[in-house]
Q: What sequence folds into this?
C-alpha cells in the first residue's frame, strides 16, 4: 500500500450522522488488514475510538462505529454532539512491522 | 489503565540529538510502545515501535538510521533517541502503549521538540 487517503474535512449538525472514509487499506482478511481510528482535539493527545475495524474501547460511546469493505474503512458517528468536533485519523499496516496514518479528517459540528 | 508521562519540552540546534522519555505508571508498557510525531499544523506521522518484551524495534523509512527506540522494563520507561536533527524534526512527539502496532490504547501527553539555530 502506498497511502491511506481521507477527505480533509466533513461537517454535520448536532443529532445527524456522518461517515469518515479511509481508502487504501489492505483488502485481504488477514491481521494486517486491520484498522484503528483515533480522535484528536486541538492541543490534545490522540484518543483511540475504534480498534480492529469495529471494536470500541471501554468508555467510547456506542455512537461511534467502524466498518470495512474491500480497501476502504469507515468511521460512523451517529447522533452528533458538539464535543465530537475534532480531527479523526485512520491507521493501518503498511507491512507486517510498519504502520501508516491517514492524513486526517477534520469534523466540524455546525 | 496505564498513565504515560513524557519528559519536558526541548529546544535543540540543527545537528544535535534529543532523547524523549515515556514513563508508565498504573500498568505495564504493554506489547509495544509506539512513537508518533505531529509537526505544527500537520497530521500524525508514525515513527516506529519497540517491544518491551524482547527489545525488538521497527522504524519508519523516513527516520531509520537516525532514530533508536528502547525500553527499560525495570523502570517501566521507554525512550526515543533522534539524532542529526533538522528543522523538519520540529514537532510534538507522542508515545503510546499498544497491544498491536495499531491498537494504541494509552497515549502520553506529548513532548514538543523545537529545532532552531
A:
Amino acid at each position: 500500500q502506498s497511502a491511506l487517503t481521507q477527505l480533509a474535512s466533513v461537517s454535520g449538525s448536532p443529532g445527524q450522522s456522518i461517515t469518515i472514509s479511509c481508502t487504501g487499506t489492505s483488502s485481504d482478511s488477514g491481521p494486517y488488514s486491520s484498522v484503528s481510528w483515533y480522535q484528536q482535539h486541538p492541543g490534545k493527545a490522540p484518543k483511540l475510538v475504534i480498534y480492529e475495524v469495529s471494536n470500541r474501547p471501554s468508555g467510547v460511546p456506542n455512537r461511534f462505529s467502524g466498518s470495512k469493505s474491500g480497501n476502504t474503512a469507515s468511521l460512523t458517528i451517529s447522533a452528533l454532539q458538539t464535543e465530537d468536533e475534532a480531527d479523526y485519523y485512520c491507521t493501518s499496516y503498511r507491512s507486517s512491522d510498519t504502520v501508516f496514518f491517514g492524513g486526517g479528517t477534520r469534523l466540524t459540528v455546525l | 489503565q496505564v498513565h504515560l508521562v513524557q519528559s519536558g519540552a526541548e529546544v535543540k540546534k540543527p545537528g544535535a540529538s534529543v532523547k524523549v522519555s515515556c514513563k508508565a505508571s498504573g500498568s505495564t508498557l504493554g506489547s509495544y510502545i509506539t512513537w508518533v510525531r505531529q509537526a505544527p499544523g500537520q497530521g500524525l506521522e508514525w515513527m516506529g515501535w519497540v517491544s518491551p518484551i524482547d527489545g525488538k524495534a521497527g522504524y519508519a523509512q523516513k527516520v531509520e538510521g537516525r532514530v533508536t527506540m528502547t525500553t527499560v522494563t525495570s523502570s517501566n520507561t521507554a525512550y526515543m533517541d533522534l539524532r542529526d536533527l533538522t528543522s523538519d524534526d520540529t514537532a510534538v512527539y507522542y508515545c503510546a502503549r499498544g497491544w498491536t502496532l495499531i491498537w494504541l490504547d494509552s497515549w502520553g501527553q506529548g513532548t514538543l521538540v523545537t529545532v532552531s539555530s
Notes: Residues 50 and 56 of chain B are 6 Å apart (CA to CA). The longest strand of chain B covers residues 18-25.
